[in-house]
Every structure is written in C-alpha cells, then in structure tokens.
Design a protein that fits this description.
TIM Barrel; 14% strand; single chain; 9-stranded parallel sheet; disordered N terminus; signal
Length: 395
C-alpha cells in the first residue's frame, strides 16, 4: 500500500520537481576575468542537476575540486599540444601527468584531442590530429584506462561541403583523406563523432531566407528531405543527420553523432541579427524540452541525442564579436543572464547567510504546478496521511 502511495506522490510532485536530463551537458569555459572559483561552479552544477560538463583544458584546480562529485568531465588537449603528443612517449607523459592522478575520483569520461582542428587557421594541425589521438589512446591502454575514457575531437560544421538537404551531407574534399582515418579510429575505439552545431549562424547569415521558428525549435511547417522523405522541424537535427550521411558516404554507418556545443547568444553587434535575450531564451528552453523527451533525430529516432549547451557563463575575455562573450546562461556572479527556464536563487556576497540553489525546469511544468495550486497540494497530503493511517492499522 505504502509503495503505491509513494508512486502516486512521485507522479504528482514530478510536476513540481526538477529532474536531471541524462543526455544534457554544459560547456564550462574559463576565458573570463571574474568567473567564480571551481567549488562555486560545482555547487551551481549540482543545484542545476547537471551531471556532465566539458572544459577546454585540464585545469588541475577544476579536476581536484570535481573529485568525488557526480559530474562527468570531458577534458581537452589544447591544439598547440597536438604536435607534442603525437609522440607516444610524450602522450604517455601527458596522460600520466594530466589524467592519472585525478582518475577515478574525478569522473573523466573523455579526452578531446584539440578543438575544431579540421577548420583551424593552422592547417598543419590536420596532419597531427589522428596520430595524436592514436598516441593518447595508446597511453590510456598502457595505463589500463581505455575502458573508461574515450578519445575524440569536436568538429565545426564547416567540415561539410553539403548539408542541405540532410541526405546530401558530405565532407569537404580537402579533409576527406584525414577524415577517413579519423572515422576509422572512432569505429575501432567505439568513440563518438562530436560536432559544434549553431543554427544561430545560419540564421544570422541569411535572416530573410532562414525561418527563425525553424532554428529556434518553435512550431513551424519544417522541411521534408526530398530523397528520404524524413520530416525535420528544426535545423539542429537536420545538421546532425547531415553529418551522419557524410559519414555514410565514406563507408561508416555505426558511429554515434553527439553535439559538443550548441547555444544562442543573448547579445551581439548591430550586424549580428537575432542575438537577443528573447531568442536565446527560446532556443535553449525549447532545446531543454527536447532533451527532457530523450529525443533522437529523424534519421536515428531511437538514439537519444546527447547535447552540451554552450555555455555556462558569459566570458568577457573571449576575442571576436560581441556575441562570443554572451553565450552564457549565467553571468559570472551566478545570476541568470536571461530566463531560459532555469530557476535560480543565488548570492555572491560573503555577508549573506542564504545558500545558493538552482534547478532546471520546464516552464510548462512550472505553469502546471501553479495551476494545480495549493488545493491540489493539500489533497495529495491528505492522500498520504490517509494511507499512512491505513498502514498503521494493518500493523
């Protein structure tokens, strides 16, 4: 009897409560002058119920602070290190120094070897990538860590020659040779193909030709791929499937595609059309809704799409246009940058006695909770007390 009551209560209060999303992570960038220390960041992630994060280095302070937490970390070998870790001995030294002392207390799940290497201005990096990945993986094997830590690299969508319709997806010819080697490595090691996918860029580039609702996950007619007849109601899923088809064309069909970065800027320069708090809130809120459903793409509907939001904080030291410094869900002081469906109560003053807390929730759930209201809460408390009395009589 009591088990049934608890099930009823859990169903009821799931409308009030805040549930973690297993396929959702976040990028924790550090290119800022006034970011909170790692212990405060860990508190924030824990209160948000986010259990996956990616950093762009192997900051020892972060790795130490995140020990014995429930947060899984992806760490990064910086681009300038690729030429060094091509050497197996150097790779072994790197893993021994940057990974082994922290694992398994710190849940390092993957090493990203470089970032957007195929499209970097330094074209020599392309030749370093696969040998560096092989050496890093070899070091993990030597240390008995390869069963726990994958090796991959995030890729810009600029690696695609064609992306529309999705079934036309293909890689640029200048990267296809190295791409084949890279895909073979992923297939051999069971590692995912990561992409940094930003529908915002497509809209900014052609706001008169690209539907804002389509890129924001809003209700819209969408598009049907003329060759596969698959229907797409948002651009992100179409971009992911274009990468899947590009891999098909090189003979690889079993590699999972994941999104290492996606987001929307809340501020931009005058020529950065669409970079507004309202659009940023809608994009990320709708994406959170999709993640709550554990959705897959039209091509792979039964494989939930893993996504890492970009980014946790606005970072004031990033170069480039204004948008680059305004992708964060939070300001450096922990306050919300805009209302994305995150409920946060935070204080940064050392004199305050109140603790900080934040939780991911869907606005629709909050609305539902409000509609249920006080009377519904009293009702379920009555049910609980009645069941408890029945249980006492039985004993």
């Amino acid at each position: 009897m009591m088990i049934h009551v608890f099930l009823l209560l859990s169903l009821c209060f799931s409308d009030y409560g805040f549930l973690p999303v297993a396929s959702l992570g976040i990028n924790y960038g550090q290119v800022g002058s006034n970011l909170p220390p790692p212990d405060k960041v860990l508190d924030l992630l824990s209160s948000l119920k986010i259990t996956k994060a990616k950093i762009y280095d192997t900051n020892p302070q972060i790795l130490t602070t995140f020990a014995n937490s429930n947060v899984e970390l992806i760490v990064t070998v910086e681009n300038q290190m690729l030429a060094v870790v091509m050497d197996p001995q150097q790779a072994l030294q790197w893993v021994t120094t940057h990974i082994k002392p922290y694992f398994p207390a710190t849940k390092i799940t993957e090493i990203s070897v470089g970032n957007e290497v195929f499209t970097d201005d330094d074209t020599s990096l392309i030749g370093y990538l696969v040998p560096a990945m092989v050496s890093i993986h070899g070091a993990l094997v030597q240390l008995g860590l390869d069963k726990y830590i994958h090796v991959s690299t995030p890729n810009s969508l600029a690696i695609l020659q064609e992306s529309f319709p999705p079934s036309a997806g293909s890689f640029k010819s200048q990267v296809s040779a190295t791409m084949s080697q890279y895909l073979q490595f992923l297939a051999n090691t069971g590692s995912p193909f990561w992409i940094n996918a930003y529908p915002y860029f497509a809209y900014k580039g052609a706001p008169n030709n690209v539907s804002l609702d389509y890129v924001l996950f809003n209700k819209n007619p969408g598009m049907v791929d003329p060759y596969t007849k698959l229907h797409y109601d948002n651009m992100l899923y179409a971009q992911v499937d274009a990468v899947v088809y590009a891999m098909f064309r090189l003979g690889y069909s079993g590699i999972e595609v994941r999104v290492s970065e996606t987001g929307w800027p809340s501020k931009g320069d005058p020529d950065e059309t669409g970079a507004t708090p309202a659009n940023a809130a809608v994009y990320n809120r709708n994406l959170l809704r999709r993640q709550m459903r554990n959705e897959g793409t039209p091509l792979r509907p039964n494989t939930k799409l893993e996504v890492y939001l970009f980014a946790l904080f606005n970072e004031d030291m990033k170069p480039g246009p204004t948008s680059e410094r305004n992708y964060g869900l939070f300001q450096p002081d922990g306050t919300i940058a805009y209302n994305v469906g995150l409920s946060a109560l935070s204080t940064t003053s050392s004199t305050s006695s109140s603790s900080s807390s934040a939780s991911i929730f869907l606005t629709s759930s909050a609305d539902k909770a409000a509609k249920m209201g006080y009377q519904s809460l009293v009702y379920w408390m009555f049910v609980y007390l009645l069941a408890f009395q029945v249980l006492l009589r039985q004993h």
